[in-house]
Design a protein that fits this description.
heterodimer, A: mainly alpha, 9 helices, B: alpha+beta, 6 strands, about 15% strand
Chain lengths: ~240, ~180
Amino acid sequence: MYSIKLEQFEGPMDLLLQLIEKNELDITRVSLARVADQFIEYMESNHNLPLEQMADFLDTAARLLLLKSKALLPVLQFTEEEEEEIVDLEERLRLYALFKEKAMLLGGMAEEQRYMFSREAFVGLDKMFLPDPSMLRVLSSDLESALKKLLDTIPDPEKLKEKILRRTIRLEEKIKRLKELILQRTKFTFFEIIRDRRDHGEIVVSFLAILELVRQKHMTVRQEDNFGDMYVEKIVEGK
Amino acid sequence: MEIGSKIESILLAYGEPIALSKLAKVLGEQEDVIRETVEKLDAEYLEQRRGFAILRKENFVQLVSHPDCAESIRKLKRIEDETTLSPATLEVLSIIAYRSPITRSEIEMIRGVNCSSILRSLSIRGLVDRIEESGDGRSYTYSPSFSLLKILGVKTLEDLPEYANLSRNGKLYPDQKESVSA
Protein backbone atom coordinates (compact mmCIF):
# COMPACT_ATOMS: atom_id res chain seq x y z
CA MET A 1 0.00 0.00 0.00
CA TYR A 2 1.15 3.52 -0.74
CA SER A 3 1.40 6.08 1.93
CA ILE A 4 1.33 9.57 0.52
CA LYS A 5 1.32 12.79 2.44
CA LEU A 6 -1.25 15.21 1.08
CA GLU A 7 -1.94 18.86 1.66
CA GLN A 8 -5.26 19.90 3.08
CA PHE A 9 -7.78 18.99 0.42
CA GLU A 10 -11.27 20.22 -0.27
CA GLY A 11 -13.63 17.51 -1.43
CA PRO A 12 -13.22 14.46 -3.66
CA MET A 13 -12.06 16.32 -6.78
CA ASP A 14 -9.29 18.06 -4.88
CA LEU A 15 -8.17 14.77 -3.32
CA LEU A 16 -8.20 13.02 -6.69
CA LEU A 17 -6.23 15.80 -8.34
CA GLN A 18 -3.63 15.84 -5.59
CA LEU A 19 -3.21 12.04 -5.82
CA ILE A 20 -2.66 12.26 -9.57
CA GLU A 21 -0.16 15.09 -9.17
CA LYS A 22 1.74 13.30 -6.40
CA ASN A 23 2.03 10.26 -8.61
CA GLU A 24 3.20 12.51 -11.42
CA LEU A 25 0.46 11.34 -13.76
CA ASP A 26 -1.65 13.11 -16.35
CA ILE A 27 -5.40 13.09 -16.11
CA THR A 28 -6.31 10.02 -18.12
CA ARG A 29 -8.59 7.12 -17.29
CA VAL A 30 -5.55 4.87 -16.95
CA SER A 31 -4.05 7.06 -14.27
CA LEU A 32 -7.45 7.44 -12.58
CA ALA A 33 -7.63 3.64 -12.31
CA ARG A 34 -4.16 3.63 -10.83
CA VAL A 35 -4.98 5.98 -8.00
CA ALA A 36 -8.33 4.29 -7.18
CA ASP A 37 -6.82 2.28 -4.30
CA GLN A 38 -5.10 5.31 -2.82
CA PHE A 39 -8.32 7.27 -3.01
CA ILE A 40 -10.25 4.59 -1.12
CA GLU A 41 -7.43 4.09 1.36
CA TYR A 42 -7.47 7.79 2.04
CA MET A 43 -11.20 7.75 2.64
CA GLU A 44 -10.83 4.88 5.10
CA SER A 45 -7.93 6.34 7.04
CA ASN A 46 -9.29 9.87 7.16
CA HIS A 47 -12.05 9.78 9.71
CA ASN A 48 -12.39 13.53 9.71
CA LEU A 49 -14.15 13.52 6.36
CA PRO A 50 -17.19 15.73 6.70
CA LEU A 51 -20.33 13.62 6.68
CA GLU A 52 -22.11 15.89 4.22
CA GLN A 53 -19.32 15.20 1.70
CA MET A 54 -19.43 11.43 2.14
CA ALA A 55 -21.91 10.92 -0.70
CA ASP A 56 -19.66 12.87 -3.09
CA PHE A 57 -16.61 10.85 -2.03
CA LEU A 58 -18.46 7.54 -2.42
CA ASP A 59 -19.76 8.57 -5.83
CA THR A 60 -16.23 9.34 -7.01
CA ALA A 61 -14.86 6.16 -5.43
CA ALA A 62 -17.47 4.05 -7.28
CA ARG A 63 -16.43 5.53 -10.63
CA LEU A 64 -12.76 4.90 -9.85
CA LEU A 65 -13.46 1.27 -8.99
CA LEU A 66 -15.33 0.86 -12.25
CA LEU A 67 -12.28 2.14 -14.09
CA LYS A 68 -9.98 -0.12 -12.14
CA SER A 69 -12.06 -3.21 -12.89
CA LYS A 70 -11.86 -2.35 -16.57
CA ALA A 71 -8.08 -2.06 -16.33
CA LEU A 72 -7.88 -5.49 -14.67
CA LEU A 73 -10.39 -7.16 -16.97
CA PRO A 74 -9.94 -5.73 -20.47
CA VAL A 75 -12.81 -7.87 -21.80
CA LEU A 76 -15.24 -5.92 -19.60
CA GLN A 77 -17.46 -3.66 -21.68
CA PHE A 78 -18.83 -0.44 -20.27
CA THR A 79 -22.46 0.40 -20.86
CA GLU A 80 -23.18 3.69 -22.55
CA GLU A 81 -24.14 5.21 -19.23
CA GLU A 82 -20.97 4.02 -17.52
CA GLU A 83 -18.89 5.34 -20.39
CA GLU A 84 -20.56 8.74 -20.00
CA GLU A 85 -19.88 8.81 -16.28
CA ILE A 86 -16.20 8.09 -16.82
CA VAL A 87 -15.87 10.78 -19.48
CA ASP A 88 -17.74 13.11 -17.16
CA LEU A 89 -15.34 12.41 -14.28
CA GLU A 90 -12.31 13.00 -16.50
CA GLU A 91 -13.75 16.22 -17.82
CA ARG A 92 -14.66 17.52 -14.41
CA LEU A 93 -11.22 16.73 -13.10
CA ARG A 94 -9.48 18.44 -16.03
CA LEU A 95 -11.72 21.45 -15.63
CA TYR A 96 -11.12 21.54 -11.91
CA ALA A 97 -7.35 21.37 -12.50
CA LEU A 98 -7.60 24.26 -14.97
CA PHE A 99 -9.59 26.48 -12.64
CA LYS A 100 -7.35 25.63 -9.73
CA GLU A 101 -4.39 26.79 -11.76
CA LYS A 102 -6.25 29.95 -12.79
CA ALA A 103 -7.23 30.55 -9.18
CA MET A 104 -3.53 30.74 -8.31
CA LEU A 105 -3.01 33.22 -11.14
CA LEU A 106 -5.91 35.41 -10.00
CA GLY A 107 -4.59 35.26 -6.45
CA GLY A 108 -1.24 36.49 -7.75
CA MET A 109 -2.92 39.29 -9.67
CA ALA A 110 -4.82 40.39 -6.57
CA GLU A 111 -1.62 40.30 -4.55
CA GLU A 112 0.08 42.68 -6.96
CA GLN A 113 -2.36 45.25 -5.61
CA ARG A 114 -2.90 46.97 -8.90
CA TYR A 115 -6.21 48.16 -7.58
CA MET A 116 -8.22 50.48 -9.77
CA PHE A 117 -9.95 53.17 -7.75
CA SER A 118 -13.21 54.81 -8.70
CA ARG A 119 -15.09 57.86 -7.54
CA GLU A 120 -18.18 57.46 -5.45
CA ALA A 121 -19.45 60.96 -5.96
CA PHE A 122 -23.06 60.17 -6.73
CA VAL A 123 -23.54 57.07 -4.63
CA GLY A 124 -27.01 57.28 -3.10
CA LEU A 125 -27.56 60.75 -4.52
CA ASP A 126 -28.64 60.04 -8.09
CA LYS A 127 -32.20 61.23 -7.52
CA MET A 128 -31.19 64.53 -5.95
CA PHE A 129 -30.13 67.86 -7.31
CA LEU A 130 -28.01 70.05 -5.11
CA PRO A 131 -27.57 73.58 -6.44
CA ASP A 132 -24.15 75.08 -6.16
CA PRO A 133 -23.85 77.34 -3.10
CA SER A 134 -22.79 80.20 -5.38
CA MET A 135 -26.26 80.15 -6.92
CA LEU A 136 -27.94 80.75 -3.61
CA ARG A 137 -29.00 84.25 -2.52
CA VAL A 138 -30.56 84.34 0.89
CA LEU A 139 -31.78 87.58 2.48
CA SER A 140 -32.33 87.89 6.19
CA SER A 141 -35.94 88.92 5.51
CA ASP A 142 -36.40 85.60 3.70
CA LEU A 143 -35.31 83.81 6.81
CA GLU A 144 -37.67 85.88 8.94
CA SER A 145 -40.71 85.18 6.79
CA ALA A 146 -39.78 81.53 6.54
CA LEU A 147 -39.62 81.28 10.30
CA LYS A 148 -42.99 83.04 10.64
CA LYS A 149 -44.57 80.63 8.19
CA LEU A 150 -43.08 77.76 10.07
CA LEU A 151 -44.41 79.02 13.38
CA ASP A 152 -47.89 79.33 11.86
CA THR A 153 -47.88 75.69 10.99
CA ILE A 154 -47.35 74.70 14.61
CA PRO A 155 -50.79 73.81 15.98
CA ASP A 156 -52.09 75.37 19.22
CA PRO A 157 -51.84 73.03 22.15
CA GLU A 158 -54.97 70.94 22.16
CA LYS A 159 -57.38 71.53 25.02
CA LEU A 160 -58.08 68.54 27.12
CA LYS A 161 -61.70 67.40 26.98
CA GLU A 162 -63.62 68.18 30.09
CA LYS A 163 -65.21 65.26 31.76
CA ILE A 164 -67.91 65.35 34.38
CA LEU A 165 -66.70 63.52 37.39
CA ARG A 166 -69.54 61.70 39.05
CA ARG A 167 -69.68 61.65 42.75
CA THR A 168 -69.27 58.10 43.86
CA ILE A 169 -70.93 56.80 46.93
CA ARG A 170 -68.56 55.34 49.43
CA LEU A 171 -69.41 52.34 51.53
CA GLU A 172 -68.94 54.02 54.94
CA GLU A 173 -71.20 56.83 53.87
CA LYS A 174 -73.92 54.39 52.80
CA ILE A 175 -73.64 52.48 56.06
CA LYS A 176 -74.03 55.70 58.00
CA ARG A 177 -77.06 56.73 55.99
CA LEU A 178 -78.83 53.37 56.26
CA LYS A 179 -78.13 53.35 60.01
CA GLU A 180 -79.86 56.70 60.33
CA LEU A 181 -82.75 55.49 58.15
CA ILE A 182 -83.36 52.38 60.23
CA LEU A 183 -83.37 54.49 63.40
CA GLN A 184 -86.06 56.74 61.92
CA ARG A 185 -88.25 54.16 60.25
CA THR A 186 -87.39 50.82 61.92
CA LYS A 187 -88.00 49.09 58.56
CA PHE A 188 -87.56 49.58 54.81
CA THR A 189 -87.10 47.43 51.74
CA PHE A 190 -84.09 47.08 49.47
CA PHE A 191 -85.93 48.13 46.32
CA GLU A 192 -87.03 51.27 48.14
CA ILE A 193 -83.53 52.44 48.92
CA ILE A 194 -82.18 51.74 45.45
CA ARG A 195 -85.01 53.44 43.63
CA ASP A 196 -83.12 56.72 43.32
CA ARG A 197 -79.80 55.09 42.53
CA ARG A 198 -77.42 56.86 40.17
CA ASP A 199 -75.67 53.77 38.85
CA HIS A 200 -75.12 50.05 39.29
CA GLY A 201 -72.31 50.73 41.66
CA GLU A 202 -74.73 52.23 44.12
CA ILE A 203 -76.84 49.04 44.19
CA VAL A 204 -73.74 47.05 45.03
CA VAL A 205 -72.66 49.52 47.70
CA SER A 206 -76.16 49.52 49.25
CA PHE A 207 -76.20 45.73 49.41
CA LEU A 208 -72.74 45.61 50.96
CA ALA A 209 -73.81 48.25 53.51
CA ILE A 210 -76.85 46.17 54.52
CA LEU A 211 -74.69 43.05 54.89
CA GLU A 212 -72.29 44.97 57.10
CA LEU A 213 -75.13 46.36 59.25
CA VAL A 214 -76.61 42.85 59.59
CA ARG A 215 -73.19 41.61 60.73
CA GLN A 216 -73.02 44.42 63.27
CA LYS A 217 -76.45 43.30 64.45
CA HIS A 218 -78.23 46.56 63.67
CA MET A 219 -80.82 44.94 61.43
CA THR A 220 -82.17 41.71 59.95
CA VAL A 221 -82.96 40.90 56.33
CA ARG A 222 -85.67 38.65 54.99
CA GLN A 223 -86.28 37.71 51.39
CA GLU A 224 -89.32 35.72 50.27
CA ASP A 225 -88.39 34.74 46.72
CA ASN A 226 -85.16 34.58 44.75
CA PHE A 227 -84.50 38.01 43.23
CA GLY A 228 -87.46 39.38 45.18
CA ASP A 229 -87.40 42.40 47.41
CA MET A 230 -85.53 42.25 50.70
CA TYR A 231 -87.22 43.42 53.87
CA VAL A 232 -84.97 45.11 56.32
CA GLU A 233 -85.94 45.51 59.96
CA LYS A 234 -84.32 47.08 62.96
CA ILE A 235 -83.21 44.77 65.70
CA VAL A 236 -84.84 45.88 68.91
CA GLU A 237 -82.35 45.69 71.70
CA GLY A 238 -82.97 43.27 74.45
CA LYS A 239 -85.27 41.23 72.25
CA MET B 1 -17.65 69.45 -27.57
CA GLU B 2 -16.72 66.05 -28.94
CA ILE B 3 -18.82 63.05 -27.96
CA GLY B 4 -15.74 61.43 -26.41
CA SER B 5 -15.19 64.42 -24.13
CA LYS B 6 -18.82 64.39 -23.09
CA ILE B 7 -18.68 60.70 -22.23
CA GLU B 8 -15.43 61.28 -20.35
CA SER B 9 -16.96 64.06 -18.27
CA ILE B 10 -20.07 62.04 -17.44
CA LEU B 11 -17.98 59.03 -16.40
CA LEU B 12 -15.86 61.26 -14.17
CA ALA B 13 -18.82 62.94 -12.51
CA TYR B 14 -20.94 59.82 -12.21
CA GLY B 15 -18.30 57.62 -10.59
CA GLU B 16 -20.33 54.44 -10.51
CA PRO B 17 -20.69 51.95 -13.37
CA ILE B 18 -23.10 53.41 -15.92
CA ALA B 19 -25.11 51.61 -18.61
CA LEU B 20 -24.18 52.29 -22.23
CA SER B 21 -27.90 52.72 -22.90
CA LYS B 22 -28.07 55.49 -20.30
CA LEU B 23 -25.14 57.29 -21.91
CA ALA B 24 -26.80 56.88 -25.31
CA LYS B 25 -30.04 58.37 -24.00
CA VAL B 26 -28.39 61.32 -22.26
CA LEU B 27 -26.21 62.15 -25.25
CA GLY B 28 -28.78 61.35 -27.93
CA GLU B 29 -26.52 58.87 -29.72
CA GLN B 30 -26.70 55.26 -30.82
CA GLU B 31 -25.47 52.73 -28.27
CA ASP B 32 -22.96 51.36 -30.79
CA VAL B 33 -21.44 54.81 -31.22
CA ILE B 34 -21.12 55.13 -27.45
CA ARG B 35 -19.50 51.70 -27.17
CA GLU B 36 -16.96 52.46 -29.88
CA THR B 37 -16.16 55.87 -28.42
CA VAL B 38 -15.62 54.38 -24.96
CA GLU B 39 -13.19 51.87 -26.40
CA LYS B 40 -11.41 54.60 -28.30
CA LEU B 41 -11.13 56.67 -25.11
CA ASP B 42 -9.62 53.75 -23.20
CA ALA B 43 -7.14 53.13 -26.03
CA GLU B 44 -6.14 56.80 -25.89
CA TYR B 45 -5.55 56.59 -22.13
CA LEU B 46 -3.28 53.62 -22.68
CA GLU B 47 -1.45 55.19 -25.61
CA GLN B 48 -0.87 58.50 -23.84
CA ARG B 49 -0.01 56.73 -20.57
CA ARG B 50 -2.76 58.59 -18.75
CA GLY B 51 -3.89 57.90 -15.18
CA PHE B 52 -7.33 56.72 -16.30
CA ALA B 53 -8.75 53.40 -17.40
CA ILE B 54 -12.28 52.40 -18.33
CA LEU B 55 -13.74 49.17 -16.97
CA ARG B 56 -16.16 47.38 -19.28
CA LYS B 57 -18.46 44.55 -18.25
CA GLU B 58 -21.55 43.53 -20.16
CA ASN B 59 -23.29 46.82 -20.97
CA PHE B 60 -21.76 48.84 -18.17
CA VAL B 61 -18.68 51.02 -18.10
CA GLN B 62 -16.85 52.77 -15.27
CA LEU B 63 -14.02 55.24 -15.13
CA VAL B 64 -11.26 54.21 -12.73
CA SER B 65 -7.68 55.07 -11.92
CA HIS B 66 -5.01 53.22 -13.89
CA PRO B 67 -3.70 50.08 -12.13
CA ASP B 68 -0.13 51.39 -12.40
CA CYS B 69 -1.11 54.30 -10.17
CA ALA B 70 -2.53 52.11 -7.42
CA GLU B 71 0.49 52.63 -5.17
CA SER B 72 0.14 56.42 -5.08
CA ILE B 73 -3.58 56.32 -4.29
CA ARG B 74 -3.00 53.70 -1.67
CA LYS B 75 -0.56 56.05 0.02
CA LEU B 76 -2.99 58.96 -0.26
CA LYS B 77 -5.91 57.01 1.17
CA ARG B 78 -3.66 55.20 3.67
CA ILE B 79 -5.14 51.85 2.71
CA GLU B 80 -3.71 48.83 4.48
CA ASP B 81 -3.08 45.63 2.58
CA GLU B 82 -6.35 43.86 2.13
CA THR B 83 -6.82 40.43 3.59
CA THR B 84 -5.70 37.78 1.14
CA LEU B 85 -8.22 35.41 -0.39
CA SER B 86 -8.08 31.73 0.55
CA PRO B 87 -7.27 29.14 -2.16
CA ALA B 88 -10.83 27.79 -1.99
CA THR B 89 -12.26 31.30 -2.39
CA LEU B 90 -9.96 31.93 -5.35
CA GLU B 91 -11.13 28.71 -6.99
CA VAL B 92 -14.76 29.80 -6.79
CA LEU B 93 -13.82 33.29 -7.99
CA SER B 94 -11.93 31.95 -10.99
CA ILE B 95 -14.79 29.65 -12.01
CA ILE B 96 -17.21 32.60 -11.80
CA ALA B 97 -14.80 34.93 -13.61
CA TYR B 98 -14.36 32.56 -16.56
CA ARG B 99 -17.78 30.95 -16.71
CA SER B 100 -20.29 33.64 -15.76
CA PRO B 101 -23.21 33.64 -15.56
CA ILE B 102 -23.02 30.38 -13.65
CA THR B 103 -25.25 28.69 -11.09
CA ARG B 104 -24.15 27.40 -7.72
CA SER B 105 -24.73 23.78 -8.74
CA GLU B 106 -22.55 24.22 -11.82
CA ILE B 107 -19.74 25.60 -9.63
CA GLU B 108 -20.16 22.71 -7.21
CA MET B 109 -20.10 20.25 -10.11
CA ILE B 110 -16.61 21.44 -11.02
CA ARG B 111 -15.26 21.68 -7.48
CA GLY B 112 -17.05 18.60 -6.12
CA VAL B 113 -17.86 20.37 -2.83
CA ASN B 114 -20.57 22.57 -1.44
CA CYS B 115 -19.76 26.22 -2.13
CA SER B 116 -22.67 28.03 -0.51
CA SER B 117 -20.75 29.65 2.34
CA ILE B 118 -17.96 30.84 0.03
CA LEU B 119 -20.55 32.27 -2.38
CA ARG B 120 -22.30 34.05 0.47
CA SER B 121 -19.11 35.68 1.68
CA LEU B 122 -18.13 36.67 -1.87
CA SER B 123 -21.54 38.31 -2.34
CA ILE B 124 -21.25 40.15 0.96
CA ARG B 125 -17.77 41.38 0.04
CA GLY B 126 -19.18 42.59 -3.26
CA LEU B 127 -16.78 40.54 -5.37
CA VAL B 128 -19.57 38.73 -7.21
CA ASP B 129 -23.04 39.80 -8.27
CA ARG B 130 -25.90 37.43 -7.55
CA ILE B 131 -28.69 37.68 -10.10
CA GLU B 132 -32.10 36.13 -9.64
CA GLU B 133 -33.02 34.12 -12.72
CA SER B 134 -36.48 32.68 -12.33
CA GLY B 135 -38.25 35.36 -10.35
CA ASP B 136 -39.29 32.89 -7.65
CA GLY B 137 -36.13 33.43 -5.59
CA ARG B 138 -34.94 29.88 -6.11
CA SER B 139 -32.39 30.02 -8.89
CA TYR B 140 -29.54 32.49 -9.00
CA THR B 141 -26.57 32.96 -11.25
CA TYR B 142 -23.29 34.48 -10.20
CA SER B 143 -21.18 36.95 -12.18
CA PRO B 144 -18.00 38.86 -11.43
CA SER B 145 -18.59 42.38 -10.08
CA PHE B 146 -16.85 45.59 -11.03
CA SER B 147 -15.04 45.35 -7.69
CA LEU B 148 -13.48 42.07 -8.79
CA LEU B 149 -12.14 43.68 -11.97
CA LYS B 150 -10.73 46.52 -9.87
CA ILE B 151 -9.01 44.14 -7.46
CA LEU B 152 -7.48 42.08 -10.26
CA GLY B 153 -6.43 45.18 -12.17
CA VAL B 154 -8.09 44.08 -15.42
CA LYS B 155 -10.34 46.32 -17.50
CA THR B 156 -12.50 43.55 -18.95
CA LEU B 157 -12.96 39.85 -18.32
CA GLU B 158 -11.39 39.26 -21.75
CA ASP B 159 -8.08 40.45 -20.26
CA LEU B 160 -7.95 37.43 -17.94
CA PRO B 161 -5.34 34.80 -18.90
CA GLU B 162 -6.70 32.35 -21.50
CA TYR B 163 -10.17 33.83 -21.21
CA ALA B 164 -11.25 33.04 -24.77
CA ASN B 165 -10.52 29.34 -24.41
CA LEU B 166 -11.84 28.86 -20.90
CA SER B 167 -15.00 30.88 -21.17
CA ARG B 168 -16.60 28.90 -24.00
CA ASN B 169 -20.00 27.57 -23.16
CA GLY B 170 -21.37 24.11 -23.77
CA LYS B 171 -19.03 21.32 -22.72
CA LEU B 172 -17.63 21.46 -19.23
CA TYR B 173 -14.18 21.22 -20.73
CA PRO B 174 -14.15 23.13 -24.00
CA ASP B 175 -10.95 21.86 -25.56
CA GLN B 176 -11.53 18.21 -26.44
CA LYS B 177 -8.26 17.69 -28.29
CA GLU B 178 -6.36 16.62 -25.20
CA SER B 179 -8.81 13.99 -24.02
CA VAL B 180 -7.37 10.52 -24.23
CA SER B 181 -9.54 7.55 -25.10
CA ALA B 182 -9.03 4.29 -23.30
